[in-house]
Specification:
CATH architecture: Roll
Largest sheet: 4 strands, antiparallel
Helix content: 25-40%
Number of domains: 1
Mean pLDDT: 82
Oligomer: single chain
CATH class: Mainly Beta
Length: 126
């Protein structure tokens, strides 16, 4: 799986959101969580599956709904807990990851037309 720095930045940003959904999953609340982290990759959590999916999606020709590809990983809840606990260590050991920003375009996203050109943020619109 190709990793873009802005994807790591987005993952760091949504750790609490993911954790809230994992906690709800553990007490059998219905969960259907999916959020884009960039470049066609999504993090998802779904009731009935005790894992956190990080997979690439695509839109088949002539359709409008993204479909999951085989490119990605499904983390068991224990594996997610380990990763969550070492995020700060990873950021410290690899400063490039620790200082990664959400997107390469940064301030240019103030202009909606420029933001829509960003393949990281709007990978299915280009």
């Amino acid at each position: 799986m190709h990793l873009c720095l802005c994807w790591w930045a987005k993952l760091r940003m949504i750790v609490d959101e993911i954790e809230t959904n994992v906690e709800a999953l553990c007490v059998n609340h219905p969960i259907s969580y999916k959020t884009h982290i960039g470049g066609g990759y999504y993090v998802s959590i779904t009731s009935g599956f005790n894992c956190i999916d990080i997979h690439k999606f695509y839109i088949p020709y002539g359709q409008t709904d993204p479909k999951m590809t085989r490119h990605g990983i499904a983390l068991r809840l224990g594996e997610w807990a380990e990763i969550k606990n070492i995020i700060s260590t990873i950021n410290d050991k690899f400063p490039t990851l620790g200082t990664a920003l959400l997107c390469f375009y940064g301030e240019d996203h103030q202009d909606p037309l420029v933001a829509l050109q960003c393949r990281e943020c709007y990978s299915f619109m280009n």
